[in-house]
Amino acid sequence: MSGREFVLHTLNGFSLGALLFLLSSGFQLIFGLMRIVNLAHGSFYLVGGYVGLTVLIAGGNFWMALVAAALAIGVTGLIVERTLLRRLRGQPMPEVLLTVGLSLIAADLSLARWGGDPILLPRPELLRGTVELGGVTYPVFRIGVFGLGLLVVGLMWLLHTRTRIGAIVRAGVDDREMVAALGINVEAIFTGAFTLGALLAGVAGVIGGVFLSLYPGADGEILLYGLVVVILGGLGSLPGAVVGSLLVGLIDAFGRAMVPSLSYFLLFAPMALILIFRPHGLFGKPD
Amino acid sequence: MQLKPVEKEVRVRATRTRRQAIVGLVGVIAIFAAACQAPGEEESGESEGPITVGVLTPTTGTVAAAGTDMLNGWNLYWELNGDEVAGRTIESIHEDTAGDPQTGLQKARKLVDQDNVQVTVGPLLANVGYAIAEYLETQPDVIGLNPVASADDLSQRTPVENFVRTGGWQSSTPHHVAGDWAFDQGYERVITLCQDYAFGHEVCGGFTNTFTDRGGTIVKKLWAPLGSSDYSSYLAQINPGQADAVFMLTVGADSGRVIKQWEDFGLKGEIPLIAGETTLEQSLLRAMGDEAVGLQSFGHYAEGRDSSATQDFVEAYQEEYDDVPSYYSCALYTGAQWFAQAVEDAEGDLSDTQAFLDTLRSVELEDSCFGPMALDEHGGTIMNVYLREVEKDEEGRLVNRPIEEFNDVSQFYWYDPEAFLDQPVYSREYLGEDWPTSCDAFAEDCPLEE
Prior knowledge:
With 287 residues, chain A is mainly alpha-helical. Helices cover 74% and strands 3% of the residues of chain A.
């Protein structure tokens, strides 16, 4: 592998990792805090992308699409949590089944509304073109995605470590019952976390629409990556989500290039190893 | 726009049930009428009544755009020419294969077992094509029209008697021309990037075989799985200093991504791109932008071809569906034209499947939206191949304009058919790189260097 290829694969891995972080930070927060495996998270991503598409078709620009998708999916998340998930609190099986059902409904409705054609969203004016970076030509958009990923990491970190809400969330991940017993309104925190997770998935959908394109089935594919990230990184751990996302992005980029026929194996083998030897993930705490 | 095929299907079905009711009614009347039939008059057999055709195209999944075009092309022919041929009505039932061999097989079974179709048309992908061909082999009374699935072996090593290329092609045929042509351009070292499944292997094999016969070298072979969402890892391995050109073959949604990224990663203009038929295909050009303008590809269809057979079709299609038709539309349109011609030649008599298959194989189209077409003795299509360049037309639409035309191209190109068929079908392992070693394998002048 030449130096040029190495740089390119690394950049590719980072940009994919940033996209995965947008998606999985919310997924992992919901998982860690509420113990819900939200299998509709991929649908939040795909529908978010489609909402962005609708805004773009209506004449909006990329940033409007991004905001619209974030709001629409955030509100959807809020409604889902308030009206559906709340009724099943503490019953893991029905919760998972509910999210599976939602994802199936979303997939069919999306197919009926937006069709089966794969759609590539246009990039924003600001992030078109390429730059020379370490001797290689690289698209600005991907660097922008990495930048956005870093920004969200920063904001999440501030939220986690510098705010009261963050403290409650961290405490909630560790011991929900104790937090509730202290008189803190855990329900409100749950709703907030779920809404934030959904919102980030909506943002990821628009970014993913530019990067990977939108098509029926993209929801399941990205969810799978999200699951790998969460399992590698660990439940409810922010550093876990960051490291997990980058790891999966890099494994994917290098794996595809170096051993293309084993690229899925390379992705899932570490996950299996982690499950066997460190089931709580690299950064998660054992229950 | 995407809803069209669904609506169509519903409409086709609705008319079918209504028609079935009418047919039933007519049947009752016929029984009474037969009683008073004058002696000596022929009784009606299988050579009358409607012919039901099962249309197998993917209208969901990665290749949904192309599958919709196929369906449109099929419907357009019957809309323009009427659905009655030699006194028989052609009725169509559409099923979605989703671009998946298992689903395709199920749908084919459903059409034959439940809908009792006599004829099937489709599918799109080579792997689905093999699955359906295998099934049709067990259903000798069903006539399979195959205008799209281009798997080489369907007319080479394992032809299926009742699965006929009616307006179809072979994956490797246009790309045999491409390999020969590339060497003429002075390219000696080429990197290939092809989709990693049967179709991609055959296309890459076609290019590699003739290109290496001339003395060219494939310096790197990249294989991307169908449905790769990100091509950056593959493009990163293309170093413009290492090769004179890149040969690329992608399918469906992958093409949009790879062409976009080709520009994103600064390869456009940096190294010449020779694309295969489906990479810069009209159904995908619709979703592409300036990144595709000026790119060249080889194919057996060029929507910008200056001939009335192509242009009339393009205009009619545009009027009906408001899109420039793709090769998939042209294929099913030609398939319908081919089938109608055969039904006409057989005077509407499909009762003897064997005889009808012979009629079907003897059809020669003087011109079609593809150009002239006929079958060789192996059932392979002899056709035109075009070197095409993507251009923006007056309305800002991207169109493939032919810049060079190669006539009467055979599936064996310059090889001796027997020697060619002795080799395995192109695969990842066999791309014809080291074959042939002697001039005996050529039907025409030997391109090998002494």
